[in-house]
């Protein structure tokens, strides 16, 4: 087998066999195949696409390039959730304890954030003492005991994906649906869960800005998962404006706590109920989405969900009294209200731009090495469709720096107020299974 003929084959629109895909992925991972040949193949895939068979073979070749997590010692059907990334997307913090409160085990491997989207681990680390450095044994033990635990990404999960992603990044081949779908699914499959619920975002703050692209990505990932015997479903949800009110690490933890007590923002709560219901059905905890939703919304009100969160934080070294007293979370020195310049209906809150503003405050990493400030961020006071009076607060900036002129200007640019009534955007576009 030689790389030249495989590039030729894909260039001419033919499908690669399982052996051929394995040859490319293992050869590239161990350094036998040079960047320039893999770059050419990636570009050929970009234009020619991949068949379903190729997609599942590529995904499995990447899974087998490194370690996989063995969750077989955890009782029950393990369900994982993945979001394609959004601004102020606090759902994992809420879903993990919420789904666990219904008895479904959640063994979550999570990462840190880069750019304008925050990582779940960064957020959780704003709880004093909390850590994710667990051995696999401790991780499994905690999930069996509490039904939920979060572990940091292991160093050697899907090394092929890491190497391919870096190459795609510099060869204009990131935005190819087969490559994105197999990249995401390889990590989910290596992480060991039996079922996967995907939250595919669409809108300004999302990877897939257009609904058609989000749908194509969702369908592709669902097919890969189901072909590989992981019960996989996807929800396409809005990311034109930020989710909930808070953007920023400690601020989102506070928002998660409020939501787990049944007092969270409407959109965030709704998305958690939709995704959580899918997870309960995928885990065969209930037969119908309606039954699942009832259990989950009861647990937000009866104290079960927040109590699981408290136990979860404590079990991983965290100060669980933050659940009762959010003043124990890191707090920014300054809280600056940003007033609306006119009266009217909020018509736009551009998610990626607010994400960037939060990153400039220090809530996100500009490069992998950046230190983040857990306390800072933004808290919206209005969402799209809300009426605002001139002078009324649009949002509050939580900052440790007084130098806010540029950020304020950016925020004003990303929020539009219109005289005419505006309907809030649709939150859930489609369910795909
Ligand atoms: N996220 C991933 O994990 N992989 C991609 O290719 C794109 C987004
Ligand atoms: Ca939020």
UniProtKB/TrEMBL annotation:
Coiled coil regions in record: none
EC number(s) stated in the UniProt entry for this protein: 2.4.2.2
InterPro entries: Glycosyl_Trfase_fam3, Glycosyl_Trfase_fam3_N_dom, Glycosyl_Trfase_fam3_N_dom_sf, Nuc_phospho_transferase, PYNP-like_C_sf, PYNP_C, Pyrmidine_PPas_bac/euk, Pyrmidine_PPase_CS
Pfam families the UniProt entry points to: Glycos_trans_3N, Glycos_transf_3, PYNP_C
Keywords for this protein: Glycosyltransferase, Transferase
Co-factor(s): K(+)
Residue stretches making up the Pyrimidine nucleoside phosphorylase C-terminal domain: 345-418
Entry function: Catalyzes phosphorolysis of the pyrimidine nucleosides uridine, thymidine and 2'-deoxyuridine with the formation of the corresponding pyrimidine base and ribose-1-phosphate.
Subunit structure: Homodimer.
Family: Belongs to the thymidine/pyrimidine-nucleoside phosphorylase family.
Protein name: Pyrimidine-nucleoside phosphorylase
Organism, as annotated: Oceanobacillus luteolus
